[in-house]
TrEMBL record:
This is Trehalose 6-phosphate phosphatase. Its EC number is 3.1.3.12. GO terms for molecular function: metal ion binding; trehalose-phosphatase activity. It is an enzyme of class 3 (hydrolase). Pathway: Glycan biosynthesis; trehalose biosynthesis. The gene is otsB.
Length: 259
């Protein structure tokens, strides 16, 4: 596939600290995807970039991820950034206020039990309970994808209020119909995000909900890697995106007027 991938990142001169708001997915975007979701981490240089951009934009930088707020705080420590967790269900805004809708915890528990039974029969599968959703990871047993997806479809059929999400080597049942796009829209109604140009970067299917709302704000979407997307821009690899992130930081630091 080499050579077919297009690097089409937004030009740095289109982005200014005073008018840009950043929204970043986490896994596959800031953090490398690894076999065990618990083992993923954000490299120190990327944490440094996030802090630089968060300060330069007066706090208009949020992480919009499928992970829970709790997991994201651990991965991003010592930073305490605005966050949207569990694909937009949970949100912590720029003032530190947490929004988390009520959900059917009993149904989440029942789904988790059913998936745990399946996982117990197949070594290498991982069931992850994230407050309002339950994920089934099959990265270490990709040949089990058809079985995993048919189980998830059946369980989804038994819980009509839940939404079935697909990702890279993962399927997930969510107790809410909120999306990453809803979370970005909520941030864009509030300081310090309101009135800025949103830039959203993601690599997976659920990020498309985020790309879909950007047009309303003349925002810029950047898709990492292959696959159909609504994003206008694309960077071929996570390393390519990290190089672009460093370039934004360096440009903005250099352009800062001398004291
Ligand atoms: Mg991702």
């Amino acid at each position: 596939m080499r050579g077919l991938m297009i690097n089409n990142a937004p030009p740095l001169e289109n982005l200014q600290p005073a008018t840009t708001a950043f929204f970043f997915d986490c896994d596959g975007t800031l953090a490398r995807i690894v076999d065990q979701p618990d083992a993923a981490g954000v490299d120190a240089d990327i944490l440094q970039c996030l802090e630089t951009l968060w300060r330069a934009t007066d706090g208009a930088l949020a992480i919009v991820s499928g992970r829970s707020i709790l997991q994201l705080d651990t991965m991003l420590s010592p930073l305490k950034l605005p966050l949207a967790g569990v694909h937009g269900i949970e949100r912590r805004n720029g003032d530190g206020v947490i929004f988390r809708p009520d959900f059917d915890a009993q149904a989440v528990g029942a789904i988790a039990e059913e998936l745990e039974r399946f996982v117990a029969q197949h070594q290498g599968l991982v069931c992850e309970v994230k407050s309002a959703s339950v994920a089934l990871h099959y990265r270490m047993r990709p040949e089990l994808e058809p079985d995993a997806l048919s189980l998830m479809s059946r369980v989804a059929g038994e819980h009509a209020a839940f939404r079935l999400l697909r990702g890279k080597m993962v399927a997930e049942l969510s107790a809410s119909h909120r999306t990453k796009g809803d979370a970005i829209e909520d941030f864009m109604q509030e300081a310090p995000f309101a009135g800025r140009l949103p830039v959203f970067v993601g690599d997976d299917v659920t990020d498309e909900d985020g790309f879909a709302v950007l047009g309303r704000y003349s925002g810029l979407g950047i898709k990492i890697g292959e696959g159909p997307t609504l994003a206008a821009h694309r960077i071929a690899t996570l390393d390519g995106f990290h190089a672009w992130l460093h370039a934004v930081c360096e440009t903005w630091i250099t352009e800062r007027p001398a004291l």
